[in-house]
Design brief:
The chain has 271 residues and is of the alpha+beta class. It has two domains: 116 residues, Diaminopimelate Epimerase, Chain A, domain 1, CATH 3.10.310; 132 residues, Diaminopimelate Epimerase, Chain A, domain 1 (Roll).
């Protein structure tokens, strides 16, 4: 059986920037083992699988890295909504609704691109866990534990002294894989005019050394920087090699993530 598949660069308006995701719309549910194999074949940070819900209320959405299924992914959600509108599977004016392991998520088209409604993460400052500073090759830092709304521990957030320090990081990924069991969000206040903060995200726990642009990380970065800067609407830049901009707006226990997307490939899976 053939299945359409698309590659979409998310959180960018330029091809080959931002974060690429594969998007596979399905007519009927497929086994998780098959989806994991497809994700491994695509070898992108995430591959998204969309299936219309039997009750007609939106789509079931699942995300797989080349190694595991993950409970939340921002850039592949943006790519999925973009694909639904671009292919006519969903009317341009219609809201995209997704049922996921993190509950209901939604996306809508705006003049600036796409806005997505995601859960905000909670942060608790902690002593730096073993391996964090060593694997990042830094001498000291402040660290926060990031929890989702189900109280599950998701990531560590590490604040550095400057944008330059974030950009200069050259982590020891072998040590990170061995000693750090969560993702590392590393951030600092932006030096560049027009930006509020910069970040990078390392996810060796999920089989990804560095993720290019991470929507889910901004569910923690939004409340973190809103509290420090005294504003609910902010612009972040994820300073990976590909790079990408994420607009965030904190609304209570939700975060609106904004960005753009570009389709770079269309094809078919033949198995």
């Amino acid at each position: 059986m053939e299945h359409a598949i698309y590659i979409v660069d998310a959180f960018t308006n330029e091809a080959f920037k931002g974060n690429p995701a594969a998007v596979c719309p399905l007519d009927t549910p497929q086994p998780a083992e098959w989806m994991q194999q497809v994700a491994a074949e695509m070898n992108l940070s995430e591959t998204a699988f969309l299936t219309p819900r039997a009750d007609g209320d939106g789509f079931d959405l699942r995300w797989f890295t080349p190694a595991i299924e993950v409970p939340l992914c921002g850039h592949a959600t943006l790519a999925s909504a973009h694909t639904l509108w671009e292919t006519g599977r969903l009317a341009a004016a219609a809201e995209a609704r997704f049922h996921t392991l993190s509950g209901w998520l939604s996306a809508r088209k705006t003049d600036a691109g796409v806005e997505m409604d995601f859960p905000a993460m909670r942060l608790e400052e902690i002593a730096a866990p073993a391996g964090v500073a060593e694997s990042l090759r830094i001498t000291s830092s402040r660290v926060w534990l990031v929890r989702d709304q189900r109280d599950l521990e998701k990531n560590y957030l590490v604040e550095l002294e400057s944008e330059a320090a974030v950009r200069a990081l050259r982590p020891d990924f072998n040590l990170m894989r061995a000693q750090v069991s969560k993702g590392l969000i590393v951030t600092a206040r932006a030096a560049a005019a027009g930006l509020d903060f910069v970040s990078r995200y390392f996810a060796t726990w999920a089989g990804i050394d560095e993720d290019p642009v991470t929507g889910g990380a901004h569910c923690a970065l939004a409340p973190f920087w809103a509290a420090r800067l005294g504003r609910a609407e902010l612009l972040g830049y994820q300073a990976s090699a590909r790079g990408g901009y994420v607009r965030v707006k904190l609304q209570g226990d939700r975060v609106v993530l904004g960005g753009q997307a570009v389709t770079v490939a269309r094809g078919s899976l033949l198995c």
